[in-house]
Specification:
Elements (H helix, E strand, L loop, with lengths): L2 H8 L3 H8 L5 H25 L2 E7 L1 E2 L8 E11 L2 E4 L5 E6 L6 E2 L4 E5 L2 H43 L5 H40 L2 E3 L4 E6 L6 E2 L9 E2 L3 E4 L4 E8 L11 E6 L6 E14 L4 E8 L11 E7 L13 E4 L4 E3 L2 E8 L2 E6 L6 E2 L2 E4 L8 E4 L11 E3 L3
Helix pairs in contact: 4-5
């Protein structure tokens, strides 16, 4: 056999190579790789869906004795208002020579707040007093003259009866006395008129002293020394119409606008609690004074006047207030129920028990609770298992479990 034949024998044909490549030992490796990939994808999906944070909404548990909304049938907002408030102004036109007030000053009724230039009114008063003195001097003169004329008339009548003087002379004496009496009466009326002018001048002179109309606190100072003040508004803005504003702090109350759809829940003398926006932890006992019998068609509200039963220097006009209208007066500290209040929607049934999910460090922890039978509006009392200040999940979703990661969503 030649070398060419030997090489031909060693050559592998195409069909022999293909049969060798499709051997049975290759398929188990391919299947194994596919199984491993699917297992890895399944494990990743299980880890992702099992550890993805559950979005939830939370609310804070509050102590039962500290919740202003406990037992509230309605809540409304409003402002502190003063029923007795006045802008103090001069009753005459004049130039200020002294302003004796500053914002925050406590003043008494009748206290002098400012002074006007009184030179003109002082001169008018002096003139009126002089005229009254002259009028009274004439009265004295006519009184003396009348007394003399009456004596002369009496003597003339006596002499006429004796025939020593004529009857005409006696009649003239009586007429002179009567005329003097009429002149005296006229002068007395003129003297009274002069006295009235003195009183008027004294009143105008007194108007130069601007006084406090009642006890209160100065909230604004609107004029300075040298400015012209007047009870009438003048053009150009150069004349002030007020010295300052005085508020009677004992007359402070709250005006709230209640939606007309819920006004039926409010009654006169109904107990309430007021919380100032400036002091959210301070609850002020209050009650309804009156329901104003008029509605605002633009806002669909009715104004309700609420009296605060405690006066305090921290309460000032125009402060924002939240008022809770209560079914009954708030319980005292000794009567306050023990436990915390949570929204009723935070309590769900899990495994046949009432449960609450408390959020801490990004995880939800299930707490089995026994809510009290008494309801406080939309809140429920939980005597134990939850502490004041805890964040509880509102309307927990079905997929939420003990230990689940959560992400708190904004309300």
């Amino acid at each position: 056999m030649s070398n060419a034949d030997l090489l031909k024998e060693l050559k592998i044909e195409r069909h022999q190579r293909e049969e060798h490549g499709h051997g049975p030992a290759r398929w188990p490796w391919i299947v194994g790789v596919i199984v491993l990939v699917l297992a890895g994808l399944g494990a990743g999906a299980w880890w992702w869906f099992g550890h993805r944070p559950v979005p939830v909404h939370t609310a804070q548990a509050v102590a039962a004795g500290s919740d202003p909304a406990a037992g509230a049938v309605l809540q409304a907002t409003g402002y502190v208002t003063a029923r007795r408030q006045a802008t103090v102004s001069a009753q005459i036109t004049g130039t200020l020579t002294a302003v004796l007030i500053e914002e925050g000053d406590h003043v008494k009724q009748g206290q002098i707040l400012a002074k006007l230039d009184d030179s003109q009114y002082k001169a008018a008063l002096d003139s009126a007093i002089a005229q009254a003195s002259a009028a009274h001097a004439l009265v004295n003169q006519y009184e003396a003259q009348l007394a003399q004329n009456q004596r002369d008339a009496t003597r003339s009548e006596a002499l006429a009866e004796r025939g020593l003087v004529s009857k005409q002379a006696a009649e003239q004496s009586r007429t002179l006395a009567s005329s003097t009496r009429a002149q005296l009466a006229s002068q007395q009326r003129q003297a009274a008129a002069a006295d009235a002018q003195v009183v008027e001048a004294q009143v105008n002179y007194g108007y130069c002293m601007i006084r406090a109309p009642f006890n209160g606190v100065i909230t604004t100072k609107d004029a300075q020394v040298g400015e012209v003040v007047s009870p009438f508004s003048a053009g150009g803005g150069f004349t002030r119409t007020g010295i300052g504003t005085i508020v009677d702090m004992d007359s402070l109350e709250v005006d709230v606008d209640v939606n007309e759809a819920y006004i039926g829940r409010v009654t006169p003398n109904m107990p309430a609690e007021a919380v100032l926006d400036a002091y959210p932890d301070w609850k002020i006992a209050a009650h309804v004074i009156a329901i104003v019998p008029a509605a605002d068609r633009g806002k669909a509200t009715v104004k309700v006047r609420v009296a605060m039963e405690k006066k305090d220097a921290r309460i000032v006009p125009d402060m924002g207030v939240r008022v809770s209208f209560l079914e009954a007066k708030p319980a005292t500290a000794e009567q306050a129920p023990k436990g915390v209040l949570v929204p009723a929607k935070a309590i769900v049934k899990r495994d046949g028990s009432d449960s609450v999910f408390v959020v801490s460090n990004g995880k939800a922890h299930r707490q089995t609770v026994q809510p009290a039978a008494q309801a406080f509006g939309e809140m429920r009392l939980i005597p134990a298992a939850v502490s004041a200040g805890d964040s509880v999940v509102v309307s927990p979703p079905d997929e939420l479990r003990d230990g689940s990661d959560v992400s708190v969503q904004a309300q």
